[in-house]
Amino acid sequence: MALLDELSGYEFEDLMVDVFRHLGYENVRQSARTADEGRDVLMEEVVDGRRRAVVVECKHTDTVSRPVVQKLHSAVATYEYDGPRRGMVATTGRFTGPAREYAHDLGDGDGSVELLDGADLREIGEEIGMDLYNGRIEILCEEALWPTHPTAGDHAPLLEVVDAVENLESASVPDPETTLELEPTVRVSGRTSATFETSVGVVHSLDETTDLVIRADREPPRVVRSELRSLVAGRTAPRIDLDEYERNLENGFDDLEQSRFGRTETGYREWAVDKFRAIHTTTVHYTGDNNVDYEKTCTPTQSDVSIQSINPVYLPHVRSRLTLGEYDYRYEYYAAGLSWTETTNDLHRCVHCDTGGARGDGPVTYCSNCGSINCADHVRTERLENEPVCTGCAVTERFALKRKYFYDEENLEAFREEYDAMAFHEKAMENVPLAVGILLAVVFLLFVLVVAVGL
Fold it and tell me: How far is CA 333 from CA 21, 178, 285, 339, 354, in A?
């Protein structure tokens, strides 16, 4: 709970007011922040049909000792309330043994004192949907973009990539191992309106509405690249409630992870204001009354920026691993229904030189002998089967002075027998360039001979 300790005492009180309201307590309010006489939060609860006051002391310390509990017990006894009352101490830290013993001796009825330590706060946060891991209420997001093609199947992007590989069909590949991570994003819309004046009048003005899509799972936040922004901000991006999400996808992926939002809504609002100010900062040049040229940097103030909306949504990040023969291939992408943008694609790169690809330097070809994917420089035609084989797994031997490629020793031995049974001209055709060269050389020599004898 170290991050809870980064809050001030007043911020911790503010947090606990929200916690108690979510827990269902009524008339939750803070006492005056001076001379509170041990009463930080006052509220009411209904127990067995009776309304009871609850007096809360919030302690933003590492350790709470017995005197704090005694002081609150006295404050509860003197609290003016027409009815039963009890106390509660909430801390980001822990209680000492004597403090717990004193509270235990008071019992659990009227006049008792309940103790909530840092671990209790975490459990309460999980129970009521408030994340207290950093002492603040993080964004509560209930929606995610849909990660699969609605009609083409769960693995449509991967299979489309597979079909672009020569000698490989999507229908023949095994099911990939696929994990899905829901990454938090926040779309912030803000209007920046500002006017900048000098002695000569207005030199610059603006009134613009800007949208930002922010990666919200890391510190500091950052604006996503344009492809991801299109997924999140697209009007056609289908959304689904998280509860329904898990019910529909539990059989479609091997694992489902959900990352946390890194800040509260207020935190992203403040960050976005600073970002909008930076985006709309510009330097203008103007001529003064004295005909001298001037330069002015125009930066909007915080009050010039108004945040119009903050819209959180989880962005699906799909990671697939496809095993083909001896090789594992990764294919990763961000998805939003019919649309997706890939981040990793091993299937369009040669395993030998990391180049090539249907979307890169050239086509790639699948070697069914070992499962490798290869660029044109690392694939050959298997002599016996007349099918592609990569240079990495092929067995080779020279025939008619030309290197031939075979799936294995068995294929090589089978071709040796065929080669031995071939006629001379058939063997020569195993190296067509050589055969043609020899033929041309013979013709040339005959021509020279004829010229020499004067025929």
Answer: 40, 11, 45, 10, 19
